[in-house]
């Protein structure tokens, strides 16, 4: 295929077959879709295989990219599922609105943001993306298009938000944006010596700021273990209302034959980053691109991990165990000799998502990126899974490419509620590897007992 329908982590095989959105819609309306044969594909920014379907075809949704309506009084925007968040930002910014929740990249589709129930640096204030979805149109393999909201087809509404594309094709959605004084951010960086100091700062930072997130120097050990920078931010009262169309001033044009982000590079990078960002504690005025989407400025930066790609591990653990579990996760990575290029720690609040399945929950979430070194990396990730689950936490399925069924079911004990509402024509490689495998195992056990 001219287009490689790959996940952003590059550690899984690209889709074997893809069809256009128009063909997918026609197939569903004609009730011709085969069992487990389809899955929506947005802009390929998922790290794992929740955007892949080895059993069938992916449906490229990016041609459904029109903004249909925008209410400049209420901030409600209606757009097709393939519209990028960058387009929504550009459209709404002149009217003083911005998405209430944005992930670490603006190059995700609206449908993907809903299906993954993405979160950002302000979960403590705004919850997940799904908290701001008013309604959407969902096409299923029975040929019907359902309007879903908190009151109309409410079960499908809750299953589709965070449902990883398994309930059908999202065609369009209406989402509430939030009013902001400007796009620019007043950012403050506060250095902390260790995780104990971070935990002491985190709650007060959330209470005082719209945005808060910490960068951790993952390679630092000994007395420096857990050191980092806490970034807080708020929209500037006076600043730009014009979105910049940064598509990557820099790029990685070719795939290096090896992982560029090795330990010597990471050690030097962490030292330079900590010095540059932590040298002043005074608030500074920064553009929204640099604050929310720093890596969007480098096109195809994931290629730096080499041909084997990367694995991202994101966990969340309750507040009462975080002070033990987070240090244990960092220590496990150091002891395994694995370096994480980006290590992010932040606090989730208590705002509940309307989704049946949603990763954020009260506590602290740690994100680690590792180059794929084969068996040694997989062994480390399994150890991180174990530490997380034993600490009462969960592993993020939306970014996963290898967790076992037992970790998924422990992380999401209500997963069968989504399975009950899954469209039979839709399947992902992630769901086949976890939920379907668990169901098949239970059936085999029951049959053997008869």
TrEMBL record:
Alphabetical list of Pfam families matching this protein: FAD_binding_4
Domain FAD-binding PCMH-type intervals:
8-180
Segments spanning the bilayer are: none
Q: Which SUPFAM superfamilies match?
A: FAD-binding/transporter-associated domain-like (SSF56176)
Which keywords annotate this record? FAD, Flavoprotein
State the name under which the record lists this protein.
Answer: FAD-binding oxidoreductase
> Which organism is this protein's natural source?
Mesorhizobium shangrilense
Its ancestry begins with: Bacteria, Pseudomonadati, Pseudomonadota, Alphaproteobacteria, Hyphomicrobiales
